[in-house]
Design a protein that fits this description.
two-stranded antiparallel sheet; globular; alpha/beta
């Protein structure tokens, strides 16, 4: 199992490499993403697409089609693991990771 974030979902929509890897390994690896990752990708894509002069509708349809390869997981499913994950990774913050140079020196 591999858990993807919104950045990877966006890259799958914008380029061929990530989408190709998802397709290639879909039979061997279970891809999952928090439902909020799909929501975040949906929020950020229009601005990214506009800046790149890419039509919005086909790209958003591509994001929807990603659900065939990437299972969306609702917060209730993974909420019970959040505290454990945060204990294991002190750089973890709500909504993502934040690394400061002093936090990662020597790692």
């Amino acid at each position: 199992m591999l858990v993807l974030d919104a950045n990877i979902l966006i890259r799958a929509v914008l380029g061929a490499r990530v989408l190709g890897l998802l397709r290639k390994y879909a039979g061997q690896v279970e891809f999952m993403a928090p439902d909020v990752a799909f929501q975040e990708a949906r929020e950020h894509l229009p601005g990214i697409l506009a800046a790149r002069k890419i039509p919005v509708t086909p790209a958003m349809e591509a994001l929807d089609l990603l659900r065939r390869l990437v299972q969306a997981v609702d917060a209730e499913t993974y909420a019970s693991f959040e505290a454990v994950a945060r204990e294991r990774n002190p750089l973890c913050i709500k909504g993502g990771f934040r690394a400061r140079p002093e936090d990662v020196r020597g790692h």
